[in-house]
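Changelog entry: the Gamma-glutamylcyclotransferase record was regenerated in this release. Current contents:
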Amino acid sequence: MEQLFSYGTLRSKEIQRQVFNRILTGKPDQLLGHKLKSLQIEEEFGMADYVVVVPSADASDIIHGVVFDVSNADLAKVDIFESNSYKRVRVKLKSGTEAWIYMEN
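Regenerated C-alpha cells:
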C-alpha cells in the first residue's frame, strides 16, 4: 500500500467515486513548510480555479489534509486525473508518514 496526502479535490467523495470507483478511508495529517497557491487550469468548458502546494520560506506554514491508503493502480489513476499541471512527489508529513502529494509542476 502507498500513502496519498490530499489537500483538495481528492477529499471529495464524489471525486473519489469518479477516480477510484469507491470511497477512500483516510486520516487527518499536516504538511509543514508548504503553502497553497491559486492555480487556473483550462478544462473542457473554460478555466477553473484550483490550488496547488508549493514550498514555503516559512517552516511554520501548514497545509491540513487527509492521508489515504491507495494502491499503485490508484496512483496511476490520480496521475491522469491531476493532469500535467501537477507533479507527484514524496513528502514527510507531520505524523512522520511518508506520502505522495501532488505539487506545482
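The CA atoms of residues 51 and 67 lie 18 Å apart.
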